[in-house]
Design brief:
2 strands; Arp2/3 complex 21 kDa subunit ARPC3; mainly alpha
């Protein structure tokens, strides 16, 4: 009985490693720039795609404190003012989880359109806060290009996230389930 429970728990934790590892990869890609011809280096906020997906389908996988830590990592590694991405990403997560029931009932096309709205809002809020913090207008071209790249990358990243979703433990095992005698 206990061995069965421990095996089930261990299997659930191993299965959790797949989506969390993919989120870590998205976080790494978020701060690394993509070199585009005639444009130069552009950073695509692909972690935002993962945040969007998991905030809709499994918000317990990305609690606010983890989003806060990921935002701090993006700020530190990406050389942004500390707190900029922390605030914006936690706010985005809160809004998406608030609209979760509505978004779960939508088709892929509507999810893509709503992601585009989220990505544009993310970019505008981040650009505005960065401009306020530096007391000068931040370059909008890089921000717009990175947002467009993120919107273009949404379908393949979404499909990969959908594939990692099947590795998650069942709701029966859960992330916060209490031990039953």
């Amino acid at each position: 009985m206990i061995l069965s429970f421990l095996t089930e728990r261990l299997q659930g934790m191993v299965r959790l490693a797949v989506p969390l590892g993919f989120l870590a990869l998205l976080l790494g890609l978020h701060v690394v720039g993509f070199v585009l011809p005639y444009v130069g280096t552009v950073r695509a906020p692909v972690f935002l795609i993962g945040l969007y997906y998991w905030a809709i389908y499994r918000p317990v996988l990305l609690p606010p404190w983890l989003v806060f830590v990921c935002g701090a990592a993006i700020d530190i590694i990406g050389n942004f003012p500390l707190g900029l991405n922390m605030l914006v990403l936690v706010l985005v997560r809160w809004i998406i989880t608030d609209q979760r029931r509505f978004l779960m009932a939508q088709t892929f096309a509507m999810l893509w359109v709503s992601y585009a709205v989220v990505a544009l809002s993310h970019m505008l809020l981040q650009w505005s806060l960065l401009s306020l913090l530096t007391l000068s207008f931040a370059p909008v071209t890089q921000a717009a290009l990175s947002t467009m790249l993120s919107i273009i990358l949404f379908p393949p990243v979404y499909l990969l996230l959908l594939g990692t979703h099947r590795f998650l433990p069942s709701a029966r095992i859960g992330l916060r389930q209490k031990v039953q005698p």
